[in-house]
Design goal:
The chain contains 16 helices and three strands. By secondary structure, it is mainly alpha-helical. It has three domains: about 45 residues, Ubiquitin-like (UB roll); about 100 residues, Receptor-associated Protein (Up-down Bundle), CATH 1.20.81.30; about 240 residues, Type II secretion system (T2SS), domain F (Receptor-associated Protein), CATH 1.20.81.30.
Length: about 425
């Protein structure tokens, strides 16, 4: 038996103490049973016992490490909400839904949840065993539904939240689709002209008296460079290799990823789009968790985990630390003006004064979603003509360079 020292929050107040347990997991479980949010748990004395767990007979069929499509998650949650609202028992509901699921990964996960519920495991704990499918937000809202007896209400909030998050991602993707297509088409057309069209003109001008114009010769030199397997192929390999190395470095190096995310926030329009989408998502999540009765510290932890940009994530963690010290939420947001603008912390302050944080966070989320729509429209309106002009100017320059010798020949004749 080991003795552990713990620190945490109980009923909004800082607390600490000691507890015995055969290992860290048991000690943490005992502390949490007292409705304490653990911030620190350290072993003082004694040795921890390592439990040998029997193999899970259903584990081979579980695919908790694999994600499922968002539309499958939304469809499942909608069916769960409808059947719970109709008054069906939870076990019967899960059995009925399982028979309707076609996605193999989702079906495997729900079958395991059914087994856990049949064995007496609470619904939220059963869902929590599959973090790749059901995140902390999902599980916490389920817990709120269980404790309040309003499962259908919180499932409705989950559907709304998932669809809104998906809508935010779709808007960001849609802003980039058309410009990306134009860029790919431009590069493809230019490559075809350099590899197949320019060599035809080069053969035509092989005996051109007095030499070719500088512009024409430059285009021909570029074409020869591109067609050369050693030079053009090496350049292509270097470009592809650089992109792969950059991508891997961003994934593996925390410092480099942080610098990259900081740079992304400074980009014109793109940075604003990233910031506003993050603020909309953060407000939506915090509002739903506030409605579920999740403590502010825990909800900020969950919000931080939902942020993909490291700069915004770290700013949210700093706000959480300030809340732990007893500072008002709006003042903490005000200390991070580059991430949380004046409008954001001013509206949070209004929510604190009125005591209706849930409604205010919903208002903030809708406000920044509308702001994001405007940025997407501006970004699309700006990128479309830029890409069209780039493609037209580049192709026009190549054609002009190729036809200039013909114009000169015509003048000579």
């Amino acid at each position: 038996m080991a003795i552990f020292a713990w620190k945490g929050l109980k009923d909004g107040q800082y607390a600490s103490g000691r507890i015995e347990g055969i290992n860290r997991d048991e000690a943490a479980f005992k502390v949490k049973e007292q409705k304490i949010i653990i911030t620190s748990l350290t072993r003082l004395s004694g040795a921890e016992q390592v439990e040998e767990k029997a193999p899970d007979p259903v584990k081979p069929g579980r695919r908790v490490g694999k994600k499922v499509p968002v539309k499958e998650l939304v469809l499942f949650t909608k069916k769960l909400e409808a059947m719970m609202r109709a008054g069906l028992p939870i076990l019967d509901t899960i059995i009925l839904i399982t028979a309707q699921i076609e996605n193999k990964v989702m079906k495997s996960v729900i079958e395991q949840i059914k087994i856990d519920v049949e064995s007496g495991t609470p619904l939220s704990d059963s869902f929590a065993k599959h973090p790749a499918v059901f995140d902390d937000i999902y599980v916490n809202l389920l817990k709120a539904g269980e404790s309040s007896g309003k499962m259908d209400t919180f499932l409705g909030k989950l559907v709304e939240g998932i669809e809104k998050s998906q809508k935010i991602r779709s808007k960001i993707k849609s802003a980039m689709v058309y410009p990306t297509i134009l860029l790919v088409v431009a590069i493809t057309v230019i490559a075809i002209m350099m590899i197949y069209v320019v060599p035809v003109f080069q053969d035509m001008f092989s005996g051109f008296a007095g030499g070719l114009p500088a512009v024409t010769q430059a285009v021909i030199n570029i074409s020869e460079f591109v067609r050369d397997p050693w030079r053009g192929g090496l350049l292509l390999g270097a470009v592809v290799g650089s992109i792969i190395i950059l991508n891997q470095t961003i994934k593996r190096s925390y410092k480099f990823r942080k610098r990259f995310h900081k740079f992304a926030l400074k980009l014109p329009l793109f940075g604003s789009l990233i910031q506003k989408s993050a603020l909309s998502k953060l407000s939506m999540v915090q509002g739903n968790l506030s409605a579920a009765g999740v403590p502010v510290l825990e909800s900020l932890d969950i919000c931080a985990s939902a942020m993909t940009n490291l700069i915004i994530k770290e700013a949210t963690v700093e706000v959480k630390r300030g809340v732990f010290s007893g500072e008002p939420l709006s003042e903490l947001y005000q200390k991070e003006p580059k991430i949380f603008p004046t409008t954001f912390h001013a509206m949070v302050s209004v929510g604190e004064k009125t005591g209706n944080m849930e409604e205010m966070f919903g208002t903030i989320s809708n406000y920044y979603e509308e702001e994001m729509d405007e940025v997407v429209d501006r970004l699309t309106a700006m990128l479309e003509p830029v890409m069209i002009v780039f493609m037209g100017a580049t192709i026009g320059f190549i054609l002009l360079a190729m036809y200039t010798p013909m114009f000169m020949m015509g003048e000579t004749l």
